[in-house]
């Protein structure tokens, strides 16, 4: 019989001793025999097949001392047993095992800084989770991993103690008792070696700081090695973009106080001399298109060296090579330094390498959105020549869908094929279902609410589905709309609309008259270029004005007390060249829409034009401008229908004023209640300066903006005049929330016309401008 108990000496010693037994201790050697049978004893949860599959010995094999050592090593290597013994009963090999306990549950005590799921995932990554085998070494690793998680949050004083409690069926409950303590905050940031710029100027380049009024939210005063590295890169970029070609960071010291609550950071730098760019020279193969490449140069001769313009130039060259299929083009900017005169000349060395075609395009990250919804936006095709312009256009088209917060394209070489590449489109999905909620505060209505549900990407199909329900005291709306953006394979879209709207234009009296508008319509969108779409459609609608219980109907509305039918034909056009539909930072959007009704009771024509421009000022700051004008005219001797008037005021129009109240003076009813009729003409202007929220870096999902709005609706007999516009200015917050884009605004009127109603604080989910 062979017997070895690893519990007395420990597993490593056991393995070593058994491995050496046949060499140094002949007394422990076993007489070789042929194995007639193998039996396993001591199993509780583990299947016998796991043991048999790992044993290097099979029935019919010759069993020797070497075989026993190999068998024990193989079983211990599984990590499932804390003790293994081999016994022989005649020619039967008996494997006796003692299983390691399994983890029944993992609990945390004293947890405040982290969500439990975050730490549970971190422990799972190191092999500790419910149902997995457990040993003390794993618990020690878990403690270190938890401490590492806390250090990443600047909680250097955190203490973690693990406790195991045995339970039935050879299991243990594992509890981590955590004393988090306070975070280590940055007490001081010093830069040593600066001569040209002040320390405060250099500190302004950092995201880390010594604390401020928003530190409770941004946590910018908590030290993080990752954040410090990012700040060092920002410092380096600051100098390199201002002529300091030979700037370097010599060292960085981070010192912690004995109580682990305060940290000081010292950065030692050498600025070097400031260099002026003296010239740019092209060398290499430019496909006989040197003039075209020269037009892409961003490097300014005669100006201080700027690393950003050098990078922009090499990137532009690489992308231009990609337009002709050269996916592996290399462009290197080699500086020729004249230190005596502090001048630098750049030699742009280009090697287009080989032309390539795209073998395969892969899509990742779309857990909900179907592949076809993304792939139908591609303009770069598989098995076609690599085209950098088409790849960027494909990325932009996917981004403009509005289903994703981020879209990236990565080019990967194909092993063994020098002329092939694969493309990987990685998307980050956002919730495309949203609840639209609007609210405002006024002295008359107090709180005005509207509600809607929309799904931009219904069931991952790319189809749009919306239901708008407004149940306020003065407006009841039911609108159902659905759009199939690919009604045909060529990208022709089809939209169905069904609506029923009831409006009480009097403020402050629920018994006023009502305007009831019911209809159904359909329209199609035909793409004519990559960015241009033409729309056409037809709508059948019916409108009626019903008198209220207490309020007399204004004379302006009496002609509409009978049902008015209309059959407007819609023709429109849009051009979208924005880089993103969700959070654009560059590009323009144009829309033109027109309605003409020559059938039914109401004959009229109406047209509107909207223009939006986004201008990136820097990587962080964006200027946005919006203009929206509209004009309506009655046809065949009829006046323009009142129920087709334009309305101005409120979010999405001119902020700081109550919704739909900027226009001709309100009409008065019998009891002097006000009615705002709108007008057949409108002019709206908006300007925004957009910046990331302090402390969130370049995250575009949470942004601050300052704005100026101007606008008004004009009556049929009024001339369009900028002097009559109501003007406001204010600040706001936009957030891409799980419920949809949310915008808060607080505005103050600058120019107020007679009859305008003020509403300073407003918010809405699912709107822009």
What is the SS-derived class? Answer: alpha+beta
From the alpha carbons, calculate the radius of gyration and give it in angstroms: 36 Å
Q: Strands of the largest sheet, in order across it?
A: 18-19-20-21-22-23-24-26-27-28-29-33-34-35-36-38
Helix content: 10-25%
- CATH fold label of the largest domain: Porin
CATH class of the largest domain: Mainly Beta
Number of strands: 38
Counting structural domains, the number is 6
Give a topology summary.
Elements: H1 6-9, H2 11-24, E1 33-34, E2 37-41, H3 48-54, E3 62-63, H4 65-77, E4 81-89, E5 92-99, E6 102-109, H5 116-125, H6 136-151, E7 159-167, E8 171-179, E9 185-192, H7 199-203, H8 215-218, H9 225-240, E10 248-256, E11 262-270, E12 276-284, H10 290-294, H11 307-323, E13 330-338, E14 343-351, E15 357-364, H12 371-375, H13 388-400, E16 404-414, E17 417-429, E18 433-442, E19 446-458, E20 463-471, E21 475-484, E22 493-503, E23 514-527, E24 532-546, E25 564-566, E26 569-576, E27 587-597, E28 604-616, E29 622-634, E30 656-657, E31 667-668, E32 674-675, E33 681-692, E34 702-714, E35 726-737, E36 740-751, E37 758-759, E38 761-765
Parallel strand pairs: 2-5, 6-8, 9-11, 12-14, 15-17
Antiparallel strand pairs: 1-3, 4-5, 7-8, 10-11, 13-14, 16-17, 18-19, 18-38, 19-20, 20-21, 21-22, 22-23, 23-24, 24-25, 24-26, 26-27, 27-28, 28-29, 29-33, 30-37, 31-32, 33-34, 34-35, 35-36, 36-38
Helix pairs in contact: 2-4
């Amino acid at each position: 019989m062979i017997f070895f108990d690893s519990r007395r000496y420990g597993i490593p010693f056991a393995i070593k001793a058994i491995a050496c037994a046949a060499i140094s201790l002949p007394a422990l050697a076993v007489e070789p025999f042929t194995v007639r049978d193998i039996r396993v004893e001591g199993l509780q949860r583990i299947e016998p097949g796991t043991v048999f599959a790992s044993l290097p010995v099979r029935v019919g094999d010759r069993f020797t001392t070497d075989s026993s050592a190999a068998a024990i090593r193989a079983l211990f290597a599984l990590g499932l047993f804390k003790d293994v013994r081999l016994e022989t009963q005649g020619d039967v090999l008996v494997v006796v095992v003692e299983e390691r306990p399994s983890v029944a549950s993992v609990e945390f005590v004293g947890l405040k800084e982290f969500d439990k799921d975050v730490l549970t995932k971190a422990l799972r990554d190191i092999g500790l989770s419910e149902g997995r085998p457990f040993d003390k070494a794993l618990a020690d690793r878990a403690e270190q991993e938890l401490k590492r998680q806390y250090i990443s949050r600047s909680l250097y004083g955190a203490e973690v103690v693990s406790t195991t409690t045995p339970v039935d069926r050879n299991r243990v409950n594992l509890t981590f008792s955590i004393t988090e303590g306070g975070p280590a905050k940055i007490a001081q940031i010093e830069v040593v070696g600066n001569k040209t710029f002040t320390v405060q100027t250099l500190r302004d380049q950092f995201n880390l700081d010594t604390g401020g009024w928003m530190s409770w939210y941004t946590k910018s005063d908590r030290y993080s090695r990752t954040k410090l590295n990012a700040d060092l890169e920002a410092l380096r970029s600051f100098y390199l973009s201002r002529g300091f070609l030979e700037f370097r960071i010599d060292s960085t010291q981070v010192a912690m106080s004995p109580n682990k609550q305060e940290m000081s950071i010292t950065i030692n730098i050498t600025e070097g001399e400031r260099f002026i760019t003296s010239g740019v020279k092209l060398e290499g193969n430019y496909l006989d298109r040197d003039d075209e490449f020269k037009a892409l140069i961003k490097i300014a001769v005669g100006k201080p060296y700027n690393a950003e313009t050098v990078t922009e130039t090499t990137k532009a060259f690489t992308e231009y090579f990609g337009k002709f299929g050269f996916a592996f083009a290399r462009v290197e900017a080699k500086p020729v330094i004249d230190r005596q005169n502090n001048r630098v000349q750049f030699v742009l060395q280009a090697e287009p390498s080989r032309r390539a075609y795209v073998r395969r395009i892969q899509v990742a990250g779309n857990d909900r959105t179907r592949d076809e919804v993304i792939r139908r936006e591609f303009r770069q095709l598989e098995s076609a020549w690599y085209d950098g312009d088409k790849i960027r256009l494909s990325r932009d088209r996917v981004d403009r869908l509005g289903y994703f917060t981020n879209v990236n394209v990565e080019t990967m070489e194909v092993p063994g094929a020098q002329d092939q590449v694969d493309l990987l489109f990685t998307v980050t999905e956002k919730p495309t279902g949203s609840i639209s909620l609007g609210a405002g505060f006024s002295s008359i209505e107090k709180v005005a609410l509207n509600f809607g549900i929309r799904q931009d990407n219904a069931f991952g199909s790319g189809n749009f589905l919306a239901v708008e329900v407004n149940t306020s005291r003065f407006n009841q709306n039911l609108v159902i709309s659905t759009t199939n953006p690919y009604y045909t394979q060529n990208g022709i879209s089809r939209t169905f609309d069904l609506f029923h709207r009831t409006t009480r234009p009097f403020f402050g009296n629920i018994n006023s008259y009502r305007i009831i508008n019911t209809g159904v319509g359909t329209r199609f969108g035909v793409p004519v270029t990559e960015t241009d779409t033409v729309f056409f459609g037809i709508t059948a609608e019916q409108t009626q004005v019903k008198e209220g219980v207490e309020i007399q109907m204004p004379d302006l509305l009496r002609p509409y007390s009978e049902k008015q039918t209309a059959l407007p034909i819609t023709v429109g056009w849009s051009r979208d060249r924005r880089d993103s539909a969700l959070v654009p930072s560059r590009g323009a959007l144009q829309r033109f829409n027109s309605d003409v009704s020559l059938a039914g009771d109401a004959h009229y024509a109406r047209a509107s034009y909207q223009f939006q421009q986004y201008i990136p000022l820097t990587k962080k700051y964006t200027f946005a401008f919006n203009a929206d004008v509209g004009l309506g005219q009655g046809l065949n001797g009829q006046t323009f229908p009142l129920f087709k008037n334009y309305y101005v005021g409120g979010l999405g129009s001119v902020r700081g004023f109550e919704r739909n109240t900027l226009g001709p003076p309100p009409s008065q009813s019998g009891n002097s209640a006000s009615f705002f009729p709108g007008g057949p003409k409108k002019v709206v202007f908006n300007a925004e300066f957009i910046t990331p929220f302090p402390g969130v870096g370049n995250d575009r999902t949470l942004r601050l903006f300052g704005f100026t709005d101007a606008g008004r609706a004009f009556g049929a007999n009024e001339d369009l005049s900028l002097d009559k516009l109501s003007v406001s200015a204010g600040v706001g917050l936009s957030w891409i929330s799980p419920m949809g884009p949310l915008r808060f605004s607080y505005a103050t009127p600058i120019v107020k016309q007679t009859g305008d109603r003020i509403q300073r604080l407003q918010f809405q989910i699912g709107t822009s401008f």
